[in-house]
Amino acid sequence: MFRHHHRVCAHILAAGMIACFASSCMMVNLKSLTTKPELVETVVEKDPHWLTDGKVLLVDIGGLITEERGGGLFSLSGVCCTPDYVKSVLNRARQDSRIRAVILRIDSPGGTVGASELIAREVRLFRTETNIPVYAQITGLGCSGGYYVAAAADRIHIQKSSITGSIGVIASLPNFRKLADKIGYEQTVVKSGVMKDIGSALRAMTPEEGAVFQALIDSSYHQFLMWIVENRPQLESIEHLKPIADGRIYTADQALAHRLVDRVAFLDETISAVKQAAHLTRADVIVYGYDEPGDPNIYTRASAAASGLRLFNAELPLPAARPGLYYLWSAGL
């Protein structure tokens, strides 16, 4: 009796999972009724001199690059980077004339194509409008969409132990047909056209549908290569870039040899370099976040989301399993 009950529960759970994946999973997001939070400036490295020339701003590009804040109940990590957060930080920096240099502190495997594009565009607009130096510092992972954002900076530095590359596009499309057949799950689809349920998890993909997806991938991949070549002329051309942009990842030394980065350096060395580029001799290093951290230092991460804003959020377990195209290194997911 107990075993029969256990099997029934397991089948019900599996059917629920299939329905959840097939319908892209409903998200419950109860927003806080409190007033909109404001960014707080925190000095993470105080210059020893009382009178300073300006400030260096650290902007965190950490975790999954996505349009939505927060990780979710079932996600691998609650850390993410969104276009609205980065734009808010850069807008705040525009209003402070003492911001004389910016460092993008990147530790990200990438994320959605759209979010990566928006953040990179905001960084380039900020550079051209303010004419202040913007350096990228890869401190852990700077892969795929993380590298897309880094390419918008004047220079890219990478920590010795970091990984970068994974230039390319991926779309992950799970298929649960065999599991659905096993537990007796059925789904009726009424559609307006033959392609309307393209990518369905409950049937095999047709060659025509595969061609549509490949065209989308190829278009986004070309956009990725164009962006890199436009912003890093030392890579010369798409034809020169393609052999090293096949999705593989690189160590810091390999990336330097391929001219994907400009220098192997630690964060403190990059801070010194960007100060020199901005002609700063005395400057505080700051971050903008929604919560003020205790005992801050140059490795302190800014809080990209206010506490209490996201009370519940049931997302798909794997970011790349959600519908869409990704600039993402998804090894191990």
What's a quick, concise take on this entry?
With 333 residues, the protein is α/β, with parallel strands linked by helices. It is 33% helix and 20% strand.
Draw up the topology in text.
Elements lengths: L1 H21 L17 E6 L8 E12 L14 E2 L1 H12 L4 E14 H18 L3 E10 L1 H6 L4 E4 L4 E3 L11 H7 L23 H25 L6 H4 L7 E3 H6 L5 E2 L2 H11 L5 E7 L36 E3 L5
Parallel strand pairs: 2-3, 2-4, 2-10, 4-5, 5-6, 5-7, 6-9
Antiparallel strand pairs: 1-10, 4-11, 7-8
Helix pairs in contact: 2-3
By CATH, the architecture is named Alpha-Beta Complex
Q: N-to-C SSE series? A: HEEEHEHEHEEHHHEHEHEE
Helix fraction?
25-40%
**Over all CA atoms, what is the radius of gyration?**
22 Å
Mean pLDDT: 83
Which characteristics define this entry?
333 residues; alpha/beta; 2-enoyl-CoA Hydratase, Chain A, domain 1; 9 helices; 11 strands; elongated
